[in-house]
Amino acid sequence: MNIYEQQLDRNAANFVALSPTSFVERSAEVFGDLPAVIHGARRYTWAQVRERSARLAAALRSLGVGRGTTVSVMLPNTPEMVEVHYAVPAVNAVLNTLNTRLDAPLLAWQMNHCETAVLITDREFGPLMADALARLKAEHGREPVVIDVCDSEYTGRGDRVGTLEYEALLAAHAPLARLEGPADEWDAIAVSYTSGTTGDPKGVVTHHRGAYLNAVGNAATWTMPHFPKYLWTLPMFHCNGWCFPWTIAMLGGTHVCLRRVEPRAILDAMREHGVDHYCAAPIVHGLIINAPAEWREGITQQVRGMVAGAAPPAAMIEGMARLGFDITHVYGLTEVYGPAAVAVKRPAWSDADLSEQTRLNGRQGVRYALQEGMTVLDPETMAEVPADGQTMGEIMFRGNIVMKGYLKNPSATDKAFAGGWFHTGDLAVIEPDRYVKIRDRSKDIIISGGENISSLEVEDALYRHPAVLACAVVARPDPKWGETPVAYVELKLGVDVTAAELIAHCKSVLAHYKVPKEIRFEAIPKTSTGKIQKFQLRQRAKSSSAIE
């Protein structure tokens, strides 16, 4: 034993398990009188949010919720969704945020898989959740305690499905003295399910340490000031809102809640509440770009947006820049708590023309400061590819901002962590400045006549046509070439263009073999976060890669 190990032990004074619940306690203590939540007519300060969260924590504890208990929630972006992110981890339980667009069979499957003990659900989803709960009982014999939320801003129909009501439950319990968090920071804080494009979805289990560090990483990456006014355009059910419920608590900011992600509501909230930060998938930024100019009038503050969720088209980044919005491009997955890499903007980039800035900002970039490793490796040899911008490999992560693993799925966990890195499945290159650029998902590469075609490159070309609102490119079988690209396109309202015109446009910017052989003007299936579901399009195209 060396001298630095003698009588220098951990104790209650010098070591505390990292948990983002501590951010809530600090903001209530230091910024208790400042605004924390805005939702319609409702306003809560940080002291009030802390008290409401502590009352919910006490209520959950009275229901037997504790370490390792799963609390599922079916909520839009409301104050209650903020509060569950503070209360559930405070009693060392595990938060399972349900995707509000899933159907009853899949919801029942997920709640059974993660062994839901308590369900908190908004009245809007009453019929859906009644169906899911009936299936959960009939098929699995599981009956969670159900707490209904009757949101003041919801005016539609929807029946209660539980025996308890959220506000009454809070009123019936004195707040816990402290939102403490876990004894062990490795304890699970959340389980979030992947989209499950084939077979059953995987339950991504994350821990308190990672959530704490990524919440800090968000602020450091975005150079966020104290007291940001943050608009909830990103669903909080998606990767726990990329850890931003905890980031905003750390900074004493204001959560501006939004039940519906619609362009008019987004821009009205920005104007009325002075919103200066928001996060969204590319499609939501597209809504802002294509909104009538008069809807943006009166927004005089600098608005900073973060984009992820899919590789953003260059036209989107350029379009937001022309509006004066400052966009930061981040990259990540559910398995790394949402964003864990960023296209860090260097000072010299501001001297480049807009087209070059767009190219630079469109890359996936470099690891978050608190993520220990991100690189591009050959998945067979696990050797790093050269930084030549040409040699493709797979993006991989390692560090504290990586999941514990997949719930009840050791084989998938072992495969994901093979070689001591987390394998993303995204194919990319390292450019000479060490920034990473995705070329495609491994399953989205189109192999035509032996040549690899990046579907993202073709999509980028299509997005540069002024008539294109959304597009997706997949492979279709071809008797001569094996596969050729087919493009699905949605047009902007009131704009018309022919398939031949779009093909001609692509020929002007792409090598001939990369040009789509067919354009289909059809609705494009998307997830609730705006991510295009290419597996459905591959099935439509009867692609050879339709079965994943």
From TrEMBL:
Residues 457-531 form the AMP-binding enzyme C-terminal domain. PROSITE patterns: AMP_BINDING. The keyword Lipid metabolism applies. Keywords: Fatty acid metabolism, Ligase, Lipid metabolism. GO terms for molecular function: ligase activity. InterPro entries: AMP-bd_C (IPR025110), AMP-bd_C_sf (IPR045851), AMP-binding_CS (IPR020845), AMP-dep_synth/lig_dom (IPR000873), ANL_N_sf (IPR042099). Pfam families: AMP-binding, AMP-binding_C. Residues 25-407 form the AMP-dependent synthetase/ligase domain. Gene3D superfamilies: 3.30.300.30, N-terminal domain of ligase-like. GO terms for biological process: fatty acid metabolic process. The keyword Cell inner membrane does not apply. Belongs to the ATP-dependent AMP-binding enzyme family. This is AMP-dependent synthetase and ligase. It comes from Rubrivivax gelatinosus (strain NBRC 100245 / IL144). The lineage of its organism: Bacteria, Pseudomonadati, Pseudomonadota, Betaproteobacteria, Burkholderiales.
